[in-house]
C-alpha cells in the first residue's frame, strides 16, 4: 500500500515540540511535506535558538514516519531561522550591536557573479574566473548559489555528496585548485526543486557559514540570473565586496543587466565591472569574425552606467567544450587565446586588491 500524506501527517502529530504542549504539525514547524512513491520529504523550520533541542525531535519524527505503512525512505531538512529581533536598547552609553551584512569568518572577500538574464554564460565566467584566480596563487572558493540551474559541479568536474563527518559542518569539494560547494550537490540530480523563501535563505546561510571553506582570499558566488530572493538574501546576510555582471551584447540581455546593476547599487554593493560574453565569434574553419549577438553593446552600456568593462569573451566552441567537460578553458588551454580574457580579469582584480 502506498503511503499517503494524511497518514504521514497523522504520524507527525504524535511528536511534540520541545518542552511538550502542542505537536509539531499544529505548531507549523513541518513545512513543504512531499510524499511520493514511498519517499517522504519535508522541512522542519525552527527558530535558531531551538535548533539543538530539535535534534532529538527530528530523529523521533523520522522514526515515526518510517513506521507508516508504505514509507520506504524519509528525508528531513532542518532550517533554522532567526528569532524576531528584540526591541532596540535605547539606554545611552551602550555600544552598538553589529547590524546589516556581516563578513564571513575566514573569507577575506566575496565577489558575486551575476547576470540579468539566464544563459548568458554567467556560470562559465564564474568557473573560469575562479580557476584563473587560483592560477594567480589566490586561495579561491566557488559557491554555486544558482538554485534554478546549479552547473558548477559539471563545470569543475566534481560529483557525489559532500561529506559531513560531524553532522554540523559540510566538507566542500575541490578541483583545479578551487574549493567548491554547490546547492546542486545538496539536492538530487534531475530533481526539480521548488524553493520557498525561508528554505532558500536557510540553504544559502548554511552554505556560507557551515561549509568548511578554510582560509580564503576570495569566495566567488555564482548567483542565479535575475534580481530575486537569493541576491537579496546574500547581500543582506553577507558583506559582498563586489559584483561582476555578465551580459551578452543583445539589447534584451543588456536591459536585464541594467536591472542587475541597479539592484546591487541599491544594496550598496560595489560593481567591479561588466563582462561581455559571446562578444564575437571567429570561425574555426576560415577565421572569419562574426558578431552573432551584435558587438559593443556592453561597452556602451557600461560607459553609460559608469561601470568598467572588464573583458570581452568570444563565443568559442573550445570554451563550451571545456566548461561542459569539467575543466574550464583557463585550465585546459591556459595559454590559448580563448583563456586570455578570463586571465586578464583575474589579474585586474588581484592588482586592484579586489580578489
Ligand atoms: N563564451 C562562450 N563560448 C561558447 N559557449 C559558451 C560561452 N559562454 C557560455 N557558453 C555555453 O553556453 C551555455 C550556457 O552557459 P552558462 O551555463 O555559463 O550560462 P548561465 O548564464 O550561467 O546560465 P543559467 O542562467 O542557466 O545559470 C553553456 O553550455 C556554456 O558552455
UniProtKB/TrEMBL annotation:
Pfam families: FeS_assembly_P, ParA. In the C-terminal section; belongs to the Mrp/NBP35 ATP-binding proteins family. Keywords: ATP-binding, Hydrolase, Iron, Iron-sulfur, Metal-binding, Nucleotide-binding. The keyword Metal-binding applies. PROSITE patterns: MRP. Homodimer. Binds and transfers iron-sulfur (Fe-S) clusters to target apoproteins. Can hydrolyze ATP. GO terms for molecular function: ATP binding. It comes from Meridianimarinicoccus marinus. InterPro entries: FSCA_dom_sf (IPR034904), MIP18-like (IPR002744), Mrp-like_CS (IPR000808), Mrp/NBP35_ATP-bd (IPR019591), NUBPL-like (IPR044304), P-loop_NTPase (IPR027417), YlxH/NBP35 (IPR033756). ATP binds at residues 116-123. This is Iron-sulfur cluster carrier protein. The keyword Nucleotide-binding applies. CDD domains: Mrp_NBP35 (cd02037). Residues 5-76 form the MIP18 family-like domain.
